[in-house]
Amino acid sequence: MSTKLLLAALCFANPACAALPLPELSHTLTTLKPAKAAKNFTLPDLDGKPHKLSDYRGKVVLINFWATWCPPCRREMPSMEHLQQKFKDQPFVILAVNQQEDPDQVFVFTGQLEPSPTFPILMDRNSTVSNAWGVLGLPASFIVDQQGRVVYRAMGGRDFDHPAMEQTLRELLKK
């Protein structure tokens, strides 16, 4: 486990640390120039159904690496569902890739969310995909364009239903 992940887990387990106010979620993305080819992967969802990134070619894909013990991950999950609902009629999909947790634990957590996620929750039990994608801490998000290239990334929690995020997606969907 990386040092950042270990520190976050220790902080979350400590009641004094858990009582600290959480920072606001950002709404900015880092543009990757040049865009780079997204590394393909296949991961199962909570029902065991495999999802292959390349099957979403032709759509804009938001890939979010997260864990239930991560406070910013927990905070941004409802905003991802709001974004999913706003863009449900567009060629857009969210793939939330959980790190190293048991599917039953993730199922219980997502059942407590309001609104409950309608996008696929994928299981990266050994962090194979997150390691291949260079994820060093959680949450980490990447936006893949219709041609299968990573064009944006975000490290840390994001407010995904912020108007600036929506505008970025609208512009990307026009291309």
How would you describe this protein?
The strands form 2 sheets. Strands 1-8-7-4-5-6 form a 6-stranded mixed beta sheet. A two-stranded antiparallel ribbon has the order 2-3. With 175 residues, the chain is an alpha/beta fold. The chain has helices at residues 3-13, 15-18, 71-86, 103-111, 128-132, 163-174; strands at residues 30-37, 42-44, 50-52, 60-66, 92-99, 121-124, 140-144, 149-155. The longest helix is centred in the middle third of the chain and has 16 residues, at 71-86. The protein is globular, with a radius of gyration of 15 Å. It has a single domain (3-14, 28-174), classed as Glutaredoxin, CATH 3.40.30.10.
Nutshell version of this structure?
This protein has helices at 3-13, 15-18, 71-86, 103-111, 128-132, 163-174; strands at 30-37, 42-44, 50-52, 60-66, 92-99, 121-124, 140-144, 149-155. The chain is of the alpha/beta class and 175 residues long.
Shape: globular
Classified by CATH, the class is Alpha Beta
Strand runs, count: 8
Number of helices: 6
Helical proportion, percent range: 25-40%
Average pLDDT number: 89
Strand-pairing-aware structural class: alpha/beta
Would you identify the regions where 5 or more consecutive residues have pLDDT less than 50?
1-18
Overall tally of structural domains: 1
Which fold name fills CATH's third level, the topology?
Answer: Glutaredoxin
- At the fourth level of CATH, the homologous superfamily is Glutaredoxin
Distance between the termini: 38 Å
**Strand fraction band?**
25-35%
CATH architecture: 3-Layer(aba) Sandwich
The value of Rg in angstroms is 15 Å
Order of helices and strands: HHEEEEHEHEHEEH
Largest sheet: 6 strands, mixed
Order of neighbouring strands in the sheet with most strands: 1-8-7-4-5-6
